[in-house]
Amino acid sequence: MDLHFTVDGHRFVADVSASPAIDEFLSGRDWLVKNEAKWDFAKGTISPGDRLIRSYRCTLNEVCRHILVSEDCVVPPKHEANILVKMLDDGIPHLTSNWAIEPHRLEPGVMEACTLSDSHKELAAHVCNY
């Protein structure tokens, strides 16, 4: 599909494929060539055409992971449950503590909670159907 996106106020289009195994945008050689991009690794900049974009380094403290429900489940109204989930292996070491999950409205009246526990070697997200 064609993905229209903006970086630092500059608009771009890229022909992309989606995969649950990849949780970030990866620009390929074809996009770099099409946009006549010059990549200066020493300065940390990419210049597609006459635009200048500064690159940023991701640290382990700023990691975002894809978390998927392991199997279909039902949480009855006015109940809460720990739902088994799986996390795609992205090569980043797993932490041994609870992790934060961005609150997300699943549907009207159903929110996922804000922690992910891996204390029993199985990952579980706490879900509330209020």
Walkthrough of the structure:
The chain is built from one helix and eleven strands. By secondary structure, the chain is mostly beta strands. The chain has two domains: 56 residues, no CATH class; 67 residues, no CATH class. The strands form three sheets. Strands 6, 7, 8, 9, 10 and 11 form a six-stranded antiparallel sheet that branches. A three-stranded antiparallel sheet has the order 3-4-5, with no helix packed on it. The longest helix is centred in the N-terminal third of the chain and has 6 residues. The mean pLDDT is 76.
What is the overall pLDDT average? 76
**Structural Rg:** 19 Å
Gap between N and C termini: 37 Å
The unreliable regions are none
Q: How many structurally independent domains?
A: 2
Helices and strands, in order, run as EEHEEEEEEEEE
Structural class: mainly beta
- Count of DSSP helices? 1
Main beta-sheet annotation: 6 strands, antiparallel
- Proportion in β-strands: 35-45%
| Approximate helicity band | under 10%
Silhouette: elongated
Extended strand count: 11
What's the arrangement of secondary structure elements?
Elements: E1 2-7, E2 10-15, H1 29-34, E3 38-40, E4 45-47, E5 53-54, E6 67-69, E7 79-87, E8 99-100, E9 104-107, E10 110-117, E11 123-129
Antiparallel strand pairs: 1-2, 3-4, 4-5, 6-7, 7-11, 8-10, 9-10, 10-11
Brief write-up:
The protein has 130 residues and is mainly beta.
